[in-house]
Amino acid sequence: MKTVEPGAVLRGALAGLLVIVPLTALRAVIDHETGDFDATGWVVVFGLGLLLAYVLAGAVAAYRAPATPLSNGTLAGLGAFVLWLPLRVLIWVARSESQGLFTGSDPVFTAGQIFGQLVFAAAFGLIGGFIGARMARTARVGEGDGAGSAVPPRG
User: Fold this and answer.
1) Is residue 101 part of a domain?
2) What is the phi-psi region of residue 109: left when phi exceeds 0, alpha when psi lies from -120 to 50, beta otherwise?
3) Structural domain of 18
4) How many separate domains does the chain show?
C-alpha cells in the first residue's frame, strides 16, 4: 500500500486548479470594474471560493485514494496552489504590470501571502480529504448488499 498516490494527487490538484483559474479570471474582471475592490464584499466571496477549491482538490484525491485519504487530500490542496503559481506569474508577465513580482510598494507576491496560502491549501485540502474519504466509504457501502448500512436489505 502506497502512502501517496501520485495519480490521485494530480487529479485532485487539477480539479482544484479548474476552480481557481476561472475564479481568478472573474476576480480580475470585477477588480477592473470596481474602483476599490478590497473595500467590497467580493473579497469574502472570492476568498471562500478559493478555500472551496482546496477542499474540492482534497476530496477528489481522497476519493481516488481511499486507503490514505488525508495525506493525498493535503497534497492535492497544496498541488492546486503550486500549479496556480506559474499561471499567476504568466498573467503578471502578460499584463506588464508596473508592480514588482516580489519587490516594490505593492508586490504581486509576498513571502507571508505565499506561506499563508500554503497553510490554507494544506488545511482545506485535509478537510477535503476527510470529506472524500466519507464519500468513498458511502459509495462502497452503497455498492454492497446493504451490509453495514443502517437500512436492512429487503428480502
Assistant:
1) yes
2) beta
3) 6-143
4) 1
Three-state SS for 76? Answer: helix
Helices 69-95, 6-33: inter-axial angle, 10-degree rounding: 40
Specify if 148 maps to a domain. Answer: no
| 53 closest CA partner among 115, 135, 128 | 128
Q: Is the dihedral of CA 4, 7, 10, 14 positive or negative?
A: negative
pLDDT per residue as tens, the chain (155 positions): 688 999 999 999 999 999 999 998 898 888 878 878 778 888 899 999 999 999 999 999 999 999 999 999 999 999 999 999 998 888 777 776 667 777 777 777 888 999 999 999 999 999 999 999 999 988 888 776 555 555 445 54
> How many CB atoms are located within 10 Å of the residue 154 CB?
5
